[in-house]
Amino acid sequence: MKNMKIIIDEKQSIINNTEVRWYLSSQIVWIGKEKNYNEIEKLKNTSYGSFEWLWSDADTILFNRDGLDFIGAVIKLNEPIIVKKSKMDVKLIEEEYGDIKISDKSNFNCKLSDFTEYYVEEDILLSYSEKWSGTNPSIEIKMTSDFSVILQNNEMMGIVIYKASKHLLPDGIHQIGEVEDIKSDLRIRLGCFFELLEKMEDDLTQHEELELKNAFMEIYEQVLPYDAPSYIGLRDTILNVVDYM
């Protein structure tokens, strides 16, 4: 299936900042008003876009059929998520504000999740295509205060979520709160969690596996006193990981 050219529109996006969700347990970024896959399937019937099918690893990215405007996405992040201690390099990225729309009334194939990086210091989640060249100029379209789409050569290449820990949710919650009590050290706990996940790919001895479980539970205990959804999402995911080990 062909690629799709993207048009930048200066009007305000219909996407609300509270509709930018990051489900840690499934590592899925969910953008838009739809709350479950049944609603997404219905929306596919009245949309153009890139669709994930059984035989395709494309991300689901939807545009309405009337104005061809962006209306939502479901993106399965690639794992392991790479932890970055440096700041995100934005030297070659031009920033604009607005919306995006597709150039043609047709479906296409797009994957924005070949690589995923989490920038601990800035609390930024970056997911991008293997086609994106960091050495060539790009455009970042800020669609909400915390959510952006990266374009290069008029094609979608990635997404950025700022204040990413604020958008982290447990399963079953479909909107982030406007004001959440998120401590600045949550991003550090997240970074440590992703680093521990990466160690699970190693061939561990029984003793090393026990040490790893204890390290996961140490993070769990550190975030246990807090009841904001972001902390619940991290705690639930840690328990799922430990049960799996």
From TrEMBL:
UniProt-recorded name of the protein: Uncharacterized protein
Organism listed in the record: Paenibacillus peoriae
